Amino acid sequence: MKLHLGQRFITVYAGVLTLVFAGTVLMGATSTTSSASFDQITVHRINLVEPDGTLRMVISDHAKFPGLFLHGKEYPHPRPQAGMLFYNDEGTEQGGLVFAGAKNKGGYSSGLSLTFDRYNQDQQLQLIGLDENNKTYAGLEVNDVPHTPILQSMAELEKVEATPKGSQRTQAEAQWQKQYGITRRYFAGKSGSGNSVVMLRDANGKPRLALTVAPAGKASIDFLDANGKVQRTLTATDAAKP
Question: Any bridge partners for residue 98, and if so which?
Answer without folding.
Answer: 83, 113
